[in-house]
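FIELD: query
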Amino acid sequence: MKKILNIKKLLFLFVAASIITVSCTDQDDNLFSVPSDLEVQDFVWKGLNLWYFWQGEVADLADSKLDNSEEYISFLSSYPNPADLFEHLRDPDDRFSVIVSDYDILQASQSGNSNTNGVDISYIFLNSGSPEVIGYVRYIIPNSDADGKDIRRGDIVYGVNGESLFFNSDTDNNLDLLDPTNYTFNLADLTVTGGVRSITPNGRNIDLTKTSITENPVLVATTIDVGAKKVGYLMYNQFISDFDTQLNGAFATFQAEGVTDLVLDFRYNPGGFVSSAIALGSMVTGQFEGQLFTKFRYNDKIQPQLTDAQENRYFVDRISTGAGISSLGLTKVYVITTGSTASASELVINSLDPYIEVIQVGTTSRGKNEASVTLYDSPSWTFNNDQLNPNHKWAMQPLISRLENSAGFSNYTNGLNPDIEIEEDLTNLGILGDETEPLLAAALNSISNAGRPNNLDTFKIVPIDFITDTKLRRITGDRMYIDLKVGDSDDALKNHKLVIPQE
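FIELD: result
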């Protein structure tokens, strides 16, 4: 492979305390320049040429592309829209790389901030084989516009602004009705007869307005007595490092109350910061501090330059603020999952599995075992105000790595399967954190029976044909993030995140 990397420029990638030194193209010192109207396309190609996990398998990302300047510029010119070039360069096995035209919105979403009316909702087909769509409310975000209005967990949405929802394909649907700042949800009553769902509009119409909300991912943290056992229950909805203190506080309470068993509810958790995933795994355990939590695999340009320490992330004894971790020292944990459980959530399950018994309750998780990095158009690829190209705000998140646990397992692109299989029942969703809520009840039943089979009767539940949900519709969707530090100046590192989607 012909080397086109400028050895004068070094990219320092800090993963935790380790430093990865990677030669990269100096975008300010190219062998040739490209026209100003192609600078975004140039950024896209060069970023993928260096970082993309499948770089060696995509013909148009070969280093030889830069051998002829005229041909290179002609190639870029054939894609007037940078997003089209990005899509062209994606490998067929890549399901989750993304590009955005405004990195401000991307950064806000990565920090847990989003424009939302506060209704967290899952959209599904009313019945298999039908394009008719309904949404069921999963929970209401505290202090949001919806909080206090006549809408709650279990309510069924059939329309928006009086128009029924449908989904024929990714390009033939009307889910864009959910995009405006203001709209009205039209609610209905749901009945199930002979395995077929039907809805009847009930006249309830809820006016909603999106505002900027930063959601505390610790939605429910409580304890439940099961015989002589004290069970901790944590409903955790996203791995956001800004809320590591609240997460650690929940475990401190569990510790103080003498929790002997734990149920982690990740059913609606799409992922987040891998540092928070490691912290959570260390809170569950505590006896494995310093041992391998997860390993990263990169492309053939980056991988050979890594030391063993640079590939690995370890169990820790402190959270991101430096505070000591409140750990439970458990040897078994129950984890509730659904098809909305992704990335950092799956990372916790997969990484804990070699060390302790992990009992998965619910349905198969989403299946994300790849990592991506947020790349900006700057010489260091980071968000550096002194170096950012001022002519545009494009950024991209190409998949750059795969993750595996300490046993070397990473093959869960089809999801992680439950040990105790039970679907959410739209006619009986229950109250989150209540011991009678069906999925939590299944976990508690297993705990009370010392892990013996539940013999759950779930035949009456009509399967849920999932389409999307509130979190997956966000720019960051179902991804994990790792702090990425480039260069030796803290100023150059500000606000940059390494994204790890587990799709």
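FIELD: remark
The two ends are 30 Å apart (CA to CA).
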